[in-house]
Amino acid sequence: MTAELVRGQNHPLPETRLEIRVSIGKPIVAGVTLSDDQGKVRGTEWVAHPGSPTLPGLEVPRQAAADHRLAVDLGAVPEAVHRVNVLLALPVGVGGPVSFGSLAAPFVAVTALDGSEVASYTITDLDAESAVVALELYRRQDAWKVRAVGQGYAGGLADMLTDQGLPQAHELASSINEAVAQGLARSVSAPPPRSSDEARVRTTGQTAAPVPAAPGPDSTAAPQPAPAHQPGDASGTTGGPVNYTHPGRQTSAPPPPPPAAAPAEPGKPAQPVAGDATGWSLEERLYNQVWGMFEDLARTTAAYRSAVDFAESRMDQELDKVLSDPRSRIGNTGDIAREAARAKHGLLVDRARAALDRDLGQLAAESEVVEPALPMAYAGWDSPVWHAYRAPMEIPMALRLGDLHLPERPDLHIPMLVRLPLERGLWIDSGRSSGTDSVADTDQLRRLAMDSAVAHAARLLAVYPAGEFTVHVIDAAGSAAGALSPLVTAGVLDEPPTAGAAGVSAVLAKLTQRVDLVQMAIRAGAADALPPDLDTAEQLLIVNDFPHGFDDRAVTQLRYLADEGPAVGVHLMMVADREDAAEYGPLLDPLWRALLRLTPVADDHLADPWVGHAWTYEPPMAPPGSRVIEQVLNQVAHARRTGGR
After folding, report:
1. Which of 168, 429, 466, 527 is the most exposed place for a label (fewest CB within 10 A)?
2. Each residue's pLDDT tens digit, 182-232
3. What is the pTM of this model?
4. Taking phi first (over 0 means left), then psi (-120 to 50 degrees means alpha), and beta for anything else, what does residue 315 get?
5. 3-state DSSP of 549-560
6. Half-sphere exposure for 600 (CA within 13 Å, toward CB)
7. What are phi and psi of 16, to 5 degrees?
8. Is the peptide bond before 257 cis (omega within 30 degrees of 0)?
9. Residues 286/201, Cβ–Cβ less than 8 Å
10. Is 149 exposed, middle or buried (0-12, 13-18, 19+ CB in 10 A)?
11. For residue 116, which phi and psi values (nearest 5 degrees)?
């Protein structure tokens, strides 16, 4: 079970090989310092930072980012090292935030190599600080522990390093800031918006999503609340913690939401209203309302669980006190004291449950109002909105990738919305997990995974304007012909699914060339120099049964697409069992971490960054017997043939 730490609290580390994940929603710098038994950093060679990212047993990211993963092998650090300090700092001189007080609280998680979360810490109460010591890993009697620190420095990296006894603190801080600035300057910007995008609400300055990441393992951190971040994989099998910073935090003030209905009776809550959130359009208000519901559910459940834990701890303490008092052994004094302790426990739990039921009832009532009002891109496949489908004229701000719920109220589902265009690829996990016990065999699980991939692809095709989204399929062994039939029969693929090693190489070569060309055009500021035959639509590559049909060169190209493709409109959807690629060992770990892991069956692998709940993810499948996906794909194909008419 994950330990949710507060400032100053420590927790034992069960192993020495770990990963530390950081999520905040804005680019920050992550680094590590090593300290001796006196808490001093002996020299610059004891600091890992973007300009010098590796030390024995440690590796940190090479540039600023909103989500970080730091690799730690405590067994490989020098014997003189007694503390490993995890540092976070804001980039200097790049026009970004100047203090942590203007950002969402940083979330830090320590995970084992299998992706399971050991401990997490949300760094609260930061204000003018621009650098902070987030965690320290320290030796204690030949074992290692983690402590939540949260010590901030208004003077930035220089003050932080000086406080740790480094003589060259100011010089090193300057070199780190310079290395970070150069890294940000080299990063590839997103393509310029199309003319149809210029008036869209996504230009309001609000950022969101995309999760997790963790999702290596996602700790989830799950749906880029991943609001503003995407869900992360709590099981540790994929990309980073779902980042759920509430999207309602924005840089400009939109018009106020429509007024809520007046309460039916004094003292009772107002009836919920769809779109009762801030935003420039109804679409944006509904998006913010959905993620507000997600955050409310996360926090009210956390309060309930905390209250129950407190009640149990208090009862245990009172029972221990009774048992340690010899006088309780005389007569029925002990029995009376035990009954009193249990009664207090029951009273506290009942009060907590009553508060939870009240909040859940309000959220359920809001869900009943919001769900029918959701636009096509946010709606489930069972929504009537799909029966009146027409190709949209512009790209929506977000897309529904499924539903999320918690065990305290399994019927209360919150849509999992991620921002468009996708900032991370998707991995439909066809391997065994905690939610696949009901699936009879591996072949059925693989078919379910491919059905899920087709449903996701159909939704993406449906919410983009005609001709603005292109899907490619690699099915090297031809094993997914049945699942792919809706896409093939409707004629929404520009070319048939690719089979064989030669076909795999051809598709990957074409897409990697497209990424290279667009990147060069962006860097040169010459978008009009792209070849006239280049498909400027967003591209999605579906890969089934990886790594079948992939040689080492193809694997390298796939990793390149996962890392560089999303920024230039090339997206990846993997349908794979990680165990099938086990022969590659850690070589493919960055690939799995770069993707948002989803499952074809209900599974509790996503987590939020506030309190680390294990959220159950429900894939967005059509109702049994429904042909809504085929009907929508036929409409998509018709719109492509007629130019959107």
Report:
1. 527
2. 666 444 333 333 333 333 332 223 333 333 333 333 333 333 333 333 444
3. 0.63
4. alpha
5. CCCHHHHHHHHH
6. 27
7. -100, -15
8. no
9. no
10. buried
11. -70, 135
